[in-house]
Design brief:
The chain is α/β, with parallel strands linked by helices. 37% of the residues lie in helices and 24% in strands. It has helices at residues 4-16, 21-28, 32-44, 66-70, 74-87, 100-109, 122-128, 153-159, 185-196, 238-244; strands spanning 18-20, 49-51, 54-56, 93-96, 116-119, 135-138, 143-144, 149-150, 164-169, 173-174, 179-182, 198-204, 216-220, 226-229, 248-252, 255-258. The strands form four sheets. An eight-stranded mixed beta sheet has the order 6-5-4-9-12-14-15-16, sandwiched between helices. Strands 1-3-2 form a three-stranded antiparallel beta sheet.
């Protein structure tokens, strides 16, 4: 069982993904030796993982590295991306969030004309960079170098400056009741900023996201006007199918059919 200070440390690490011993010592106005002793207790409980110079989340609670995720379920992501390409018209203003499935969507949409792209993902921006008919506006702020994106307050402020026709975003996991999950609160904040500042919200997620154990709650499938996936919803998620069937589009090699 954690005390108040330990709980605060857990919140910091879940938000940032990593915290140095030096940062924690300054934040709590304690010596580095004391900070190290506290995080060692959390590591011994399996709540944190020792990393050189600080601590991070246990591997079981972390997302895979971005490059590893890019190659996972690539055919499912390609089908979803093609279906979204068929849905999105030329001339639209589009917010695109972070993640590998939105990146696949961006690669597909790069063939569209006269788009206005608003994104916090360098990967999505790069997908459009060779199309002179696409205008790209990219978030400023501190870059997550491994994921090549901007999250947190900077992304929220960025998206709140605009009102886009369409918002496209992925998710870390989907719970049985339709709750959307991610690995860091900054990812949730960025996703919710897209939902709040677009006219039509599109969730894109392959079937592996159903029941996936991401730890940060944020939003619900009901927040989206459309949900694109590549397989029928698993049987254990019947409440989603029963309540939100009109939102769900199952991609079949680029074509969509209602769930």
């Amino acid at each position: 069982m954690t005390n108040k200070r330990q709980a605060q440390i857990l919140d910091i690490v879940r938000d940032k993904g990593f915290a140095s011993i030096e940062h924690l010592a300054v934040h709590f106005n304690v010596t580095q030796q004391t900070a190290r002793r506290i995080v060692n207790q959390l590591c011994d409980q399996g709540l944190l993982r020792r990393i050189h110079g600080g601590v991070g989340l246990p591997v079981s609670n972390q997302n895979l590295a971005y490059e590893s995720r890019q190659g996972l379920n690539f055919e499912a992501k390609r089908r979803i991306a093609q279906a979204v390409f068929n849905f999105v018209p030329d001339g639209a203003s589009i917010m695109i969030g972070l993640g590998t499935t939105p990146e696949y969507v961006a690669l597909a949409l790069a063939g569209r004309q006269n788009l206005r792209i608003i994104t916090n993902s360098l990967n999505a921006a790069s997908a459009f960079a060779h199309n002179p008919d696409v205008e790209i506006t990219l978030a400023g702020g501190t870059l997550r170098p491994l994921d090549r994106d901007i999250i947190g307050d900077a992304a929220v402020r960025f998206f709140s400056q605009f009102k886009a026709d369409i918002g496209i975003f992925g998710v870390g996991g989907i719970d049985e009741d339709g709750t959307l999950l991610d690995f860091y609160s900054g990812e949730v904040q960025a996703r919710q900023a897209i939902v709040a500042n677009c006219r039509t919200a599109l969730l894109v997620a392959d079937a592996s996201k159903f029941g996936r154990n991401a730890t940060v709650r944020g939003g619900h499938i009901s927040d989206c006007q459309h949900f694109f996936t590549e397989k029928p919803i698993p049987a254990g998620f019947h409440r989603i199918t029963d309540q939100f069937a009109g939102k769900i589009h199952v991609a079949d090699d680029g074509r969509v059919q209602a769930a």
